[in-house]
Structures are given as structure tokens and as C-alpha cells.
Specification:
Elements (H helix, E strand, L loop, with lengths): L6 E10 L2 E11 L4 E5 L6 H8 L7 E6 L8 H4 L3 E4 L11 H10 L7 H7 L15 H13 L5 E5 L7 H16 L3 E6 L2 H7 L2 E6 L2 E6 L1 H6 L4 E7 L7 H9 L4 E6 L2 E5 L4 H13 L4 E8 L2 H9 L6
Parallel strand pairs: 3-7, 3-8, 5-6, 6-7
Antiparallel strand pairs: 1-2, 1-4, 8-9, 10-12, 10-13, 11-12
This protein binds adenosine-5'-triphosphate.
Main location: membrane
Subcellular location: Cell membrane
Protein name: ABC transporter ATP-binding protein
Length: 311
């Protein structure tokens, strides 16, 4: 029998008034892995995580974490999970290190507070009340609070949003270390490089529904294998995507990523490359780069939904 998932979301429906935030979502998270939930703004990622954390009750369907119901079994579950919310999570007047020590005491085998705070650069603001911490400091404290208890499952909502590159790398290393320590990590992110580097498994959601699941490699290999990325120096003329699509024929798909880049998916062979460069020539488009490559997670999302992942 396969091991039971650490987190199971089974036909979850969540509504805010008329808005359907999560629309019959199914996903399973294998224990001791890092699972990334990807999706554009408003896809329902935070709502799903908050339901797994026991902050919201499913309107339909079921959620189970470590075999427990996050609402009904909240008291039993709380010491076994770590939570990093997108914002907040600490009392406004509490000092940063006091808060971290408090959370550590709620768990049976916490990490040492000092070294964790030092690694996340929290020692320098350890005596600062939470409300006076900068946004970045609050975020690092939130991450430390999620991990300090050595939880069995850590839910981290956009852990590196807005972090500088060095702290981002430290965060990635920390998440990899806790996974090696046996922690199951469920994270949401908008950063493709984060998901590609960290995640064992990715669930892509859009409009509250699962649109694809797999390891980053499986997702990037599935379907069309190759891409040609055309980046230009001046914005494309209106209708450029349609015009290039017509020039390339039915075997290829053309998506406009932004005003300066187009992605061609399909056979990225010499003939297609020749057609792209002829099209540039005929339309007065000056390429800055024309790159052949395997599609990345962002391309996968675009192919599946026709829209980009980033805000
Ligand atoms: N408290 C709320 N009241 C009303 N609508 C809400 C509330 N929270 C979320 N929504 C709506 O539910 C939908 C899903 O939101 P959610 O925050 O779960 O998405 P998300 O994928 O986490 O987005 P983001 O990447 O921007 O954090 C969106 O349409 C959002 O506007």
C-alpha cells in the first residue's frame, strides 16, 4: 500500500460570498518532500493553505493533514505543524526573539533559537517589537516561527517574496535542510526558479482548480519539448503574435510573454528558426536574442491556461 499523504485536499470548494476561490481542488502531498503550489494571483493558493492550517472550514470537500481534520482536531495538530502566513502571525507589541522563543516552547523538540535567528539575520532586531520590524524582518521572523518547532509539516506562504538574493538563498538552504530532517514542506510561490530548484513536486492551480501536477522535470518535459524565445529591443507591433503564428504554420504555438518577448512552442528545428528570423526581417523587428530551449514552468503554465503566472 502506498504511504498515506501528509496532506490531502479532496474536492475542496471555498467561497467568499459570490467568489469561488477554490473550485473542487484535489491534491496530495507526499511526506518528507517539498511541494510547491504554483498559480497566478487569486488562483486560490492562500485559501487552500489556510484551510489546511485550520483557519478556514471547507465549504465542500475535505482536507486532512497528518490524517487529522485541521478544524476538528486543531489542538492535536497545532504542535505538529508550522505556519508562515503571507503577513502577520505575531502580536504587535512582542519582541522578535521573545516571539520566536514562545513558538519554540510550544513544540517538543525545537531547533535552537539563537542559531536560527542568527542565520536569518534576526539577532540584530531581536529586541524590536513586532510592529516596528521592517516588512522583510517580519517575513524572516515568520519563516523562523514556521520552522523553529521542527514541525512534521510546514506550510509557508510565499516565503521569499521580496527577499534580497542572499536571504533568499539562505531560505532555500534552510528549507532543504528541514526536508532532509524529515519535515514535509508545502510552499506557495510565484517564482519559477524557486519551484524548479526546491520542489520535489509541483501542483499548478488556476482559478481554484488543479491544472497540472508532477515533478518540475516531468512538467517541463511533458507535451511540447522545445521552445524558441524571441526577445526584442523595441516593443512588438500590435498583432505580432498572430502574425508570427500565421507565418509558422499549424505545428507551432506562439504566446506573447510581455511587450518584449514571444515564446514559440513546437518543433524548434532549423526550419522554424529560419521562419522566425525571416518574419523578424519582414516586419522590421530587431531581435536582441533568439534562444532555443526546453520550456520552463512558466511556459508550462502559459500553455495550459493561455496566461502568464506573474502578476
Ligand atoms: N477574505 C477574502 N474575502 C473575499 N475574497 C477573498 C478573500 N480572500 C481571498 N479572496 C478571493 O478569493 C480568490 C482566491 O484568493 P487567494 O488569496 O486564495 O489566491 P492566491 O492564489 O493565494 O493569490 P495571491 O498569489 O495573490 O496570494 C481571489 O479571487 C481573491 O480575491
Amino acid at each position: 500500500m502506498p504511504p498515506s499523504p501528509a496532506v490531502l485536499v479532496d474536492g475542496l470548494v471555498m467561497r467568499y460570498g459570490e467568489t469561488i476561490a477554490v473550485d473542487g481542488l484535489h491534491l496530495a502531498v507526499e511526506a518528507q518532500t517539498i511541494t510547491a503550489v504554483l498559480g497566478p494571483n487569486g488562483a486560490g493558493k492562500t485559501t487552500t493553505l489556510e484551510t489546511c492550517e485550520g483557519y478556514r472550514k471547507p465549504h465542500h470537500g475535505r482536507v486532512s493533514v497528518l490524517g487529522l481534520d485541521p478544524v476538528r482536531d486543531r489542538r492535536a495538530l497545532l504542535p505538529r505543524i508550522g505556519v508562515m502566513l503571507q503577513a502577520g502571525g505575531a502580536w504587535s507589541g512582542v519582541r522578535a526573539l521573545e516571539m520566536l522563543e514562545h513558538v519554540a516552547r510550544l513544540h517538543a523538540h525545537p531547533l535552537e533559537v539563537g542559531p536560527l535567528a542568527e542565520r536569518l539575520g534576526l539577532h540584530e532586531c531581536g529586541r524590536t517589537p513586532y510592529r516596528r520590524l521592517s516588512g522583510g524582518q517580519q517575513q524572516r521572523l515568520g519563516l523562523a516561527m514556521a520552522l523553529v518547532g521542527r514541525p512534521e509539516v510546514a506550510f509557508v506562504d510565499e516565503p521569499t517574496a521580496g527577499m534580497d538574493p542572499a536571504v533568499r538563498r539562505t531560505t532555500w538552504e534552510l528549507l532543504e535542510e528541514v526536508r532532509a530532517d524529515g519535515v514535509t514542506v508545502v510552499l506557495t510561490t510565484h517564482y519559477m526558479d524557486e519551484a524548479e530548484r526546491l520542489a520535489d513536486h509541483v501542483h499548478i492551480i488556476d482559478r481554484g482548480r488543479l491544472v497540472a501536477s508532477g515533478s518540475p522535470l516531468e512538467l517541463m518535459r511533458g507535451g511540447t519539448v522545445s521552445t524558441i524565445r524571441l526577445v526584442v529591443t523595441e516593443p512588438f507591433p500590435p498583432g505580432a503574435g498572430d502574425s508570427l503564428r500565421a507565418a509558422l504554420g499549424p505545428d507551432t504555438e506562439v504566446s506573447q510573454l510581455d511587450s518584449l518577448s514571444l515564446l514559440v512552442t513546437g518543433p524548434a528545428d532549423a526550419s522554424t528558426l529560419g521562419k522566425v528570423s525571416r518574419w523578424c526581417d519582414e516586419h522590421g523587428v530587431v531581435p536582441e536574442s533568439l534562444t532555443l530551449g526546453q520550456r520552463n514552468l512558466e511556459d508550462v503554465f502559459l500553455e495550459l491556461t493561455g496566461r502568464g503566472l506573474r502578476p
